[in-house]
Specification:
By secondary structure, the chain is an alpha+beta fold. It is built from 3 helices and 4 strands. Strands 2-3-1-4 form a 4-stranded antiparallel beta sheet. The termini are close together.
Length: about 100
C-alpha cells in the first residue's frame, strides 16, 4: 500500500476552505486504477496557523505514479499555471510513504 500526504498550513480561520476543496467526491482521482481512498485531517489548534493533511491511499506506488503522469492530472495542473495561490496559504509540502506492515 502507498500513501501520498499533502500538508497545507493556512492562516487562522481558513482550514475550512482547504477542507472544502479536497473533500469533493466523484472526481477524476477517485476513478483512477489503484486509488483506494482519501482522508482530510485538520490539526486541532486553539489559536494561530492551522494545518490540513490530505492523505490519499493507493494500492501501489506504480498506481500513484500512473495518476501523476496521466494526461488528466497534468491538464489540471496546467490549467492553474499563472494563478497565484490564495493569500491564506502559508506553506505546502507533500511526502510519500510505503506501508510496510
Amino acid at each position: 500500500m502507498f500513501f501520498q500526504i499533502k500538508r497545507i498550513v493556512v492562516k487562522e480561520g481558513f482550514s475550512d476552505q482547504v477542507v472544502e476543496r479536497f473533500s469533493k467526491r466523484g472526481g477524476l482521482l477517485e476513478k483512477q486504477p489503484g486509488f483506494l481512498d482519501k482522508q482530510v485531517l485538520v490539526k486541532k489548534v486553539r489559536r494561530g496557523d492551522e494545518e490540513v493533511l490530505v492523505i490519499s491511499r493507493w494500492e501501489s506506488e506504480q498506481d500513484w505514479k500512473n495518476w501523476e503522469k496521466s494526461p488528466e492530472h497534468i491538464a489540471g495542473h496546467k490549467a492553474k499555471l499563472g494563478t497565484a495561490k490564495p493569500e491564506y496559504i502559508i506553506e505546502t509540502s507533500h511526502d510519500l510513504y510505503e506501508a510496510i506492515v
